[in-house]
Please model this.
Amino acid sequence: MPTDDPAAPPPPSNRRAVIATIFNQKGGVGKTTTSVNLATCLAAGGVRVLVIDFDPQGSATANLGLIGRPVPGSYELLMTGTLSATLMQTTAFPGVMLCPAGDALAGADLELAICTDAQNLLRQALHNARVPIDVIIIDCPPTLSMLALNALVASDAVVMPVTPDPMARDVLHRAWRHIQRIRSTLNPNLAIAGVVLTMVHDNPVHREFEQTIRGELGNRVLPVAIPFDTAILGSSRHDLPVCVFAPQSAAAQAYLALAAVIQDRMSALSRPVAQPAAFCDDTDGAEPACVMTPVPGFSHDTAAAALRFWSSKAGHTEPPAPVTKAATVAAPTAGRAPASGWHSPDRITGFAAGCVLGIVLTLLARAIGL
Ligand SMILES: Nc1ncnc2c1ncn2[C@@H]1O[C@H](COP(=O)(O)OP(=O)(O)O)[C@@H](O)[C@H]1O
Ligand SMILES: [Mg+2]
Model:
């Protein structure tokens, strides 16, 4: 299992981490959920990961449990051009580091508008960084802003989450064209690691969408789809990745399988050899600009055991039973941690008891003529 040992020796001076951006111009398609869970599953399997929260909304920072801490992060990374140790915060999960989004990130787009070479700032910072990290995952905002452009220019690969609905498909096609433009101008080494279908229901409409999109994009659509799973809603409430909150849930299992696919693709990219990886058949023979740290092998069983352990440490000693796609819709709260707030079972029971007591007292008062 990985450690965040600050005394760990730095990697050889000519090696840098492989960088992947999670991008789609549409909001609510599962970018943050994918970033955080992919990172956690990879780390559980022995890969050292840094998540860069590049969305001013800070959802990845929240989901990894670091919201509200005024620590330097991705804004400072951009503006200083250096990935120093002070910008990488440890999380509750060994092997997952976070470069968080702070308040200042919201103004970064405006500041970048008047910088020269603004689109290359992140690339310079990350390509020069020699940190004990194998894979950097960048969680993007839902627009092709200067922040997203910086992420795509800095990256070796892009993963595009998409939900199975016609509107999301149109946006995906637009995002695809933008990425092709970036590849032909600013970053010819950007490989499309794949499109990942998210929030998929087991119904004919989603099945037909999946068929259409696979027909259009072929094996660029990753073989693992993430099912719609209400365990994810519970995990957000607890500021935990679903793979730790409910490691047995359908979504967690899917993210674990996705991590194996992505590890495979990242390690193909990080080969210090002359030809491009087999899956990126459209890179026009572009070569990696410098040698990347080889991504370590990924063991599904080791990762699953680590996730169960982290889950028990987070207070989820009895994770919910596996949730089937149909069951996620039919029984949204089955087996989940008890809800807090006005809809918690305790409050509902208390409210019902109060009503019964009120009725009894009213009847008693009438009976004795008050
Ligand atoms: N597989 C899923 N099943 C159910 N809800 C999901 C799933 N993936 C994401 N969500 C929920 O959908 C919302 C949007 O997801 P998010 O990852 O924040 O998208 P984005 O980063 O693209 O805006 C969040 O409330 C998240 O908890
Ligand atoms: Mg997001």
